[in-house]
Amino acid sequence: PSLSANRRKMNLKSERRGIHVDQSELLCKKGCGYYGNPAWQGFCSKCWREEYHKARQKQIQEDWELAERLQREEEEAYASSQSTQGAQSLTFSKFEEKKTNEKTRKVTTVKKFFTASSRAGAKKAEIQEAKAPSPSINRQASIETDRVSKEFIEFLRTYHKPGQDIYKQCKLFLDTMNHKRELSIEEQSECAQDFYQNVADKLQTRWKVPPEKVEKAMDQVEKYIMTRQYKYVFCPETTDDEKKDLAVQKRIRALHWVTPQMLCVPVNEEIPEVSDMVVKAITDIIEMDSKRVPRDKLACITKCSKHIFNAIKITKNEPASADDFLPTLIYIVLKGNPPRLQSNIQYITRFCNPSRLMTGEDGYYFTNLCCAVAFIEKLDAQSLNLSQEDFDRFMTGQTSPKKQESDSFSPDVCLGVKQMCKSLDLLSQLNERQERIVSEAKKLEKDLIDWTDGITKEVEDIVEKYPLEIKPKSQALAAIDSENVENDKLPPPLQPQVYAG
User: Which superkingdom (predicted)?
Assistant: First the structure.
């Protein structure tokens, strides 16, 4: 009845307007019997919602299939690259070519897939999502970003109104930076530094926050901002940071022959505790590349430096000085060869909170690391007190300052004989060390015996010089009024007398 009444009303309105309406044109295209709407492509409201829901579910399913396919391709490419690297090392030109090909392949595949999509907004968002390295990496980054965001919000709750203001400014800054991707990295660095300064000034002047709380708030702001901006501003393609990283790594590999004695490093790695400190320092300087926040990278440098100071202190049995620290830091960098060293230094310089670089131990240790890298880049024969001929031979690998085997072996000698002689040499060194330890132990034993004999002789001489005389025990004195019959010299005791009056 309601359907027929609706149709009668539509026909009545059309007749009043003088318009002849075909009944079939007013019905829903799906054939449900209801009237359709031209704005909804001829469907009624119910059928249009069903069609829209089906189209949306279909698009979501296609997106998931694309994401899974891209993830499988990325995993296969990564597995093949790992197997290739295990067989032979890639040069810089091959690495750069491979990186470019993978990036072009992924972007081209996604563009082809989304070319026929009718939704402009969804198309743009999906293409931006497809430019990421892989869905698995995106999910991992999203998990870490969510965790940092939750921690940031929980921290700002303790600041009440200033915390709300800080959060709004951070969101506005991130939105602004997302629209400024075309800016150079130096301009983005200036924007970040200005933002740090503005937030700190507002906390101090407007909200009257104590300096120690301002420092903690700025650390959290830096962590929240740089966790989200890390993949855009760390080693960007518009800079030559990657080329500098490869140049520094190549330079350090060429200087593998440098010994601690050449750098005047006051560290004795034969001591087990010192060796452990050196290993920990190398681990910390390498771990710096795995951090995303500039403050965390500085913390790794600080931990590395403290291990260096402890190693020097144990070796010299006295506190280390700045003159001892810098050569040791240079030796640690040469021995560890940290990955992407220049990129990490540039990232800290551009986006770290300036108050940390200007003051405190973090800034001091970071400055020393920059000096160490600059020294390594300009290292020459004069810096190591070597002749230019020896330096050139060491750099080209013709000889080694540790052991020149080319002089003691002919080119025809096989590798096994060389290894055997090297092992025999090592055994002889261990034998010498063992003999030295035994001789020192015997010397210590003799010193203990001599010391015991000396003490015994001194005691005997003192006893002989001052003999101990034991006098006989004297008799105890008796009381005057006691009956002492043995002593006749004492008068008898007085007796009381009674006089009659």
Answer: Eukaryota
